[in-house]
Amino acid sequence: MKHTLLNGDVLDCLRTLPDACVQCVVTSPPYWGLRDYGVSGQIGLEPTLEEHVEKLVKVFREVRRVLRDDGTVWLNYGDCYAGSTTGADRPPEPGHTHEDDGRVKTGQENKHRRPDTGLKPKDLVGMPWRIAFALQADGWYLRSDIIWSKPNPMPESVTDRPTRAHEYIFLLTKRPRYYCDADAIREEQTGNAHSRGKGLTPKSAPEGSNIRAKESWHLSTRDVEVPRGRNRRTVWEITPQPMPEAHFATFPEALVEPCIKAGTSEIGACSQCGAPQRRSVLSQSTGSGDHRSVPGQDKPFSIPRGEYLRLTTGWQPSCTCNASDPVPCVVLDPFGGSGTVAKVARDLGRSSILIELNSKYVGIAKKRLRIGEQLDTGICEYVVRTVRPEAA
What we know:
Number of strands: 15
Strand content: 15-25%
Largest sheet: 9 strands, mixed
Number of helices: 7
Strand order of the largest sheet: 8-4-5-3-2-13-14-1-15
Structural class: alpha/beta
CATH architecture of the largest domain: 3-Layer(aba) Sandwich
């Protein structure tokens, strides 16, 4: 595995990367008007929301260049409300004051932002969707909106609207067909699935019916003893994960993990062209409750009556390069912050590229990845580099 930390402006750093060098992007850009990181040229302090959106569109044009054609982008962004004089109305964060966490103060907001946003005071800005639609108009496929539901949201001293307890994750792609390992992130079956027809099982359903293959039991990994599950839904309930060294708004590792698992192959990618390895899947409908032979198993596997089996039997290349052993897939976070995406990527056996403007957060990321402790000698290769504008 190779982990690269680039310290510099996001566009300057992205321009140093070769074309189609990453399989997956997981990131959370700085939210508009939320925080001043104390670095010149930072994204998030644009005077108007239009300028903020335009700047992110430019960044993701460069992201599109470095992403493989079959790659995916998982973009997290939270909303805000228009303020009475500044443009953004956000709640305080638990355990942090405006003075100690880098949040934009009222005076700073007035200095950086003009009140000509076109929004009325107390309007919901809708910034996540403004960004998503702008990227869609710029050529990206907007494939899914995922709700990050927070069981313990930030408190808000409001009495005329509900407290916000969610953010968005948008799944974006370059092509209509792309790599997505849905089997890697299946969720536990609830047992409350809607009936798909009176007295019908997948096997007894009419040919061509959705009953035959839809919302059925699955076995999702190479080990057939793993519990069966259903396709992942679009509401993910995940508790925010505070980090004292950075700020409260860091990515939870549990939010990053399914994005990386779905967007990259756990086996790796072709060492020549970067095409990810794909699952070989055995799928069959059953209704008799008898024993069936499963490839790679010493004895027949019992399939319960009326269930639909989906079983991973191995992995195969998705290219014709006939290269040697696959190499780890590469995950990019162009707004790396404290290094959560890089850490999760490493824990999952993937390589990573992290870009961060603020050297303070690069230091935090190095600490989280334990760079310099020589704990991963022979396993991980680390590269830390500062990118200056004249080098781009």
